[in-house]
Amino acid sequence: MTDLPRNISLVGASNFRDLGGYAAQDGRQVRWRRLFRSDHLAGLSPQDAQALAALGLARAVDLRGHDESSAQAYQLPSVRYHALPIEPTVVRRARELAASGQALTAPMAERLMHDTYRAFVADNAPQFAALFEHLLAEDTPLVFHCTAGKDRTGFAAALILLALGVPEEVVMQDYLLTNRLYQRPGMVAGTAPEEVLQIIWQVQPGFLRTALDVVEQDHGGLERYLGQRLGLGAAARARLAELYLQPPGG
Questions:
Q1: Positive or negative: CA dihedral 62, 129, 242, 249
Q2: In the prediction, which pLDDT does 142 show?
Q3: Could you give the C-alpha distances from 190 to 72, 90, 194, in angstroms and in order?
Q4: CA gap 120, 41 in Å, rounded
């Protein structure tokens, strides 16, 4: 298949994009129009819903926390919805600081973001394991998302691409696309100093690097983490490749 547009232009979501086309293992590439990542889908217009239906979207995996998904619920025609909640620790910690009369500074925000990514690896393995179970069940087009589609979704996308054999430098490039695409909500303006908002609402290479370092140092590397913590052993990896990789030009 010829390369397709990676970013899907929608009115109600700015960070909806395809993981297809990346070169992976054995000379194959990730299939187009099977795996999508996004910010939340509660603001989609009827035209957006039609665009997603035209893509054949059949499944949505929501990584938002309980309060987030309750406050901004959505339902898409003919799309099966699966919730795998990961609570937004940065938001909770920022509220705790505000309640105690402390202002969130840029260095504090940086530390919180790194802590968040460490927690993805250590504390949220069950949710990411469940995401892979959905991927392995069938290959109908699936989108996984959180609120901004950058941290929880970014780490999930990294795990999927790495499991498919996409080189780490390419995975990082995909991760950083959020900074070009995502439009943060206007309502957050003025809620914190701009340097803090830029840290919280953007991604940095060091955030994902922190998570990958934890995978390496605390879990014996990617292969062992995928196999032992996420249930993605050799047979499952082969099945994942069968479902989501294709020969170049295939």
A1: positive
A2: 98
A3: 22, 17, 8
A4: 22
